[in-house]
Amino acid sequence: MTPTTEITMNFYRRGVKTIIIKPDGSRVLERKEAKVDNSMVKAIARGFRWQRLMLDGVYNTIYDIAEKENISPSFVSRISRLETLSPRVVEAIVEGKHPPHLTMKDLFKPFPVEWVLQEQVFLSLTPIEWTDQ
Questions:
Q1: Which residue has the higher pLDDT, 19 or 98?
Q2: What whole-number distance in Å separates Cα of residue 8 and Cα of residue 45?
Q3: What is the pTM of this model?
Q4: Alpha helices in the chain (DSSP H)
Q5: Burial class (CB in 10 A: 0-12, 13-18, 19+), 79
């Protein structure tokens, strides 16, 4: 009989890479430098930009933005919500210090308005399922 060792771990896809998370929440073969997810940074920047354009009166509705940008109003709505993210969450994403399991898909799910709850959902070391009640 061949000896075997069982190790509990989770696998998460980040773009084209798979990251292994150990039970204590740390990454396997973790790199020392921060890993910035450019797609999340770009989405957050677009959300802030669109909000500024609406506040400045350049656009009146998400439909105006969608028409000008040639994208769906639904997509504009999902991206625009990112402007309401907690500054700590935004900072963690921009600096690449967010948990490895956090992806764009998670940012598009409904999330709490309160910043403290957002930080619990997005910055926890283990994934938290947020359910809209």
A1: 98
A2: 37
A3: 0.69
A4: 38-55, 62-69, 73-80, 87-95, 104-108, 115-123
A5: buried
**Residue 42: strand, helix, or coil:** helix
Owner of token pair 């898909």 = 105
Write the pLDDT tens digit of every residue in 92-103: 999 988 888 888
Instruction: Assess contact for 106 and 50: CB atoms under 8 A.
Output: no
Distance separating the N- and C-terminal Cα atoms of the chain? 51
pLDDT, tens digit (0-9, with 9 covering 90-100), for 52-63: 999 999 999 999
For 85, phi then psi, to 5°, come to -65, 150
Please give the pLDDT value at position 5.
Answer: 64
Give the residue extent of every domain in the chain. 34-123
Residue from 53, 41, 48, 50 nearest 107 by CA:
41
Tell me the C-alpha distance between 52 and 6, whole Å. 52
